[in-house]
Amino acid sequence: MKTSVFSICGMCSARCPIRVEVTDGRVTWIEGNPYVPGMEGSLCARGSAGLALLYDFERPQYPMIRTGPRGAGQYKRASWDEVFAYIAERVQTLQSQYGKRTVALLDRGAGLFGQMQRLIVRGMGSPNYFNHDDLCRKNVDLAYQSLLGYGRPEVGYDWSNAKHIVLYGRNAVEALAVREVNNIVKALENGANLTYIDVRASKTATKATRYLQIRPGTDYALNLALIHVIVKENLFDRDFVDRFVTGLPELENFIKPYTPQWAEKETGIPAYEIISFARQLGADKPRVIFYPGWFAARYMDAFYFARSVIILNALLGSIEQKGGLILAKTPKEVGAKGLNSLLERIPAPEEKRVEAEEGKGFLYDGAGHILHLYRAIKTGQPYPIKALFVVRYDPFAGIPHKDIEEILNGVELLVTIDVNYSNTSYYADVILPESTYLERSDILGMQRGAKPAFVMRRQAVKPLYDTKARWEIVKGILTAYGAGEYMPYESIEDIWNYQLDGTGVKIEDFDKTGQVALCKDAKMYSRDELKFKTPSGKVEILSSKMAEREVPFFYEPPKISKPDTENGEFRLVFGRMAVHTHVQTHNNKYLNEIVPENELWINDKVAARLGIKNGDWVEVSSGDFSGKIRAKVTPFIHEEAVFMYRGFENEVPWKSRSYGKGLNEGRLLKGAFDRMAHGSHTGALFENFVKVKKA
Ligand SMILES: Nc1nc2c(c(=O)[nH]1)N[C@H]1C(S)=C(S)[C@@H](COP(=O)(O)OP(=O)(O)OC[C@H]3O[C@@H](n4cnc5c(=O)[nH]c(N)nc54)[C@H](O)[C@@H]3O)O[C@H]1N2
Ligand SMILES: Nc1nc2c(c(=O)[nH]1)N[C@H]1C(S)=C(S)[C@@H](COP(=O)(O)OP(=O)(O)OC[C@H]3O[C@@H](n4cnc5c(=O)[nH]c(N)nc54)[C@H](O)[C@@H]3O)O[C@H]1N2
Ligand code: SF4
Ligand SMILES: [Mo]
């Protein structure tokens, strides 16, 4: 018998809506949800390879407790009751010694369904919730909050109606989200301009109408020069700026020295190119999208860079504008009621997260700073973190071994909740196997946007092994710990009914398409109605939030240091490829077959000087780590940088297809986790030089 289930893809964090076909209890087909605009049946390679995750036996099949030294791979099988009791007892002992706040939870992200795992740490009375954002998009989030009072997830992009899209190393064609890339392609088909700025010609560069090869680390300098020209030549949207932007005189004063000629020296992009680019933007405004970045933990100036991108959007009047940036509407703004919160039923802890104890000079928001967490674990300051839960995240896959050791020395309990054997779980004291997204239902999620909707991830088939859904794992942990009152539900339907209570929406309303929109038409504000969520209601260049935390409004562009390429020194940059997700898909049978290992992009002129030919093995080293990888010699990368795709060289021997294949960029990031970006204290993962020589 064939059935069809609407659900949500779990192969990356884009969480595309899908339709899953089940034939006689087996998943036989997955496609994009045909009812969702921008999806219309399409799916990426990873989404299709969800089948190979589901039917993979090289994933955890039952709970496990460590029996040998950390990292030796010695575990015993345990029952769920046994692991829940073990965790509860260990946490209680550590809390009685170090206080409730000694428990931390490191999460991939809040996202659509993330509220569930937050219950663990709050239910245990600790404030220490962290997600991966510091190493991903946090700069953009904080920059939006500082300027508009809206967070990053509350700003959407009307790609398909844009006249000009500007992407800074936002490699949308490879580091993809299906709906986004489909809509960008629609814009191109409609004749839009696409300016792509990157140190290398990625696949997105090949779709661009203008590609600017920029010197690594100098995007901020480019933006200051663009602002300079736009202000000087009166190319901005005067109506928008007069009504909504505060702090323009101070900005004008700040950008005076940053002429296109100055920027040419910093960026390597000719001044005339910068001027003609600015003029084209002036002509295309207000249907312009400057995208402030997704993976934005790149350079020390990343927070101020993100602010400069948002300021450019404001100057060109592209905010809450067709073909521009669209602000998300709350359920209340569209006349509906939102989902009931599971988290708010638990009293918020009075104690502060580790970074909140560290004084002022940087911004933070709802989730903690990872770099402060790592520091607290390593040093015990401002207070010790001894129990660490890691959920849907593999931090140990992307950091140097020395950092792993220091963290392991600091924590006395490490628990992972994962669908795969992650590098982190290989060191864990307890491995809790979650059912894959095709085998479980999650809590309902709220899809934000101009037309908010409730969305459902619904189980397609029963779990193949002794794994559990996330809500069941959270319930088991909290009940054993003695906080079961926060998870009184017996089934996912109980949870859904609680979430939906008072909204007028019923579970069966999701049957038809998997989603329930909260209004009929997308809602947009006219300029007469528009008000931002900052204290002044305006776009605050002189941000109240920054003033409160004593963070400077402006930041002089730093001098970007130059690697000694003559002697084989380069800046290491890295990124995503279309057929893999970060560190989690390399052992996937289908995807591994397509791309089993990575290679190192190196500029052809420099390679010739170093005697490196295409396909040669080279040794890349940083600090005490060095590894081998094949060279891809190409003119399409800046001389100062070498590039590799992320997430290879898996270190878990249980994963036979990916074990040891390729080179792991994370091991080469010596010192990266001690560096904090200005104003945001997020990661700056490209502030890193490596040595390359022929192997
Ligand atoms: N297939 C696939 N898609 C994904 C993901 C995935 O794992 N796989 N992950 C998702 C996630 S979590 C994220 S955060 C996004 C990331 O989305 P992106 O940020 O678009 O992706 P990256 O591949 O990290 O892009 C890094 C790019 O920055 C360039 N770069 C390096 N230095 C500079 C510089 O100084 N200036 C400029 N302008 N460019 C520079 C690099 O050459 C590289 O092309 O992708 C998402 N989509
Ligand atoms: N060295 C280095 N570090 C980086 C980056 C980099 O490029 N290089 N990129 C940064 C960025 S932008 C990001 S987004 C992060 C991403 O880094 P991670 O979040 O660590 O990478 P992922 O591969 O997305 O997945 C993490 C884990 O989630 C598990 N998982 C997948 N699905 C599920 C599920 O349904 N349930 C559970 N419980 N687990 C699941 C996977 O098996 C995997 O072990 O890394 C950041 N850090
Ligand atoms: S972009 Fe691909 S892997 Fe990510 S959620 Fe969408 S279909 Fe799944
Ligand atoms: Mo990310």
Automatic annotation (TrEMBL):
Localisation: Cell envelope
Residue ranges annotated for the 4Fe-4S Mo/W bis-MGD-type domain, each copy included: 2-58
Main location: other
Pfam families according to UniProt: Molybdop_Fe4S4, Molybdopterin, Molydop_binding
Keyword Oxidoreductase assigned: yes
GO cellular component: cell envelope
InterPro entries found in the cross-reference section: Asp_de-COase-like_dom_sf, MoPterin_dinucl-bd_dom, Mopterin_OxRdtase, Mopterin_OxRdtase_4Fe-4S_dom, Mopterin_OxRdtase_prok_CS
Top-level taxon of origin: Bacteria
Keyword Protein transport attributed: no
Keyword entries, A-Z: 4Fe-4S, Iron, Iron-sulfur, Metal-binding, Oxidoreductase
Cofactor: [4Fe-4S] cluster
GO molecular function, one term: oxidoreductase activity
SMART domains hit by this protein: Molybdop_Fe4S4
Family indicated by similarity: Belongs to the prokaryotic molybdopterin-containing oxidoreductase family.
Protein name: Molybdopterin-dependent oxidoreductase
Organism: Thermodesulfovibrio autotrophicus
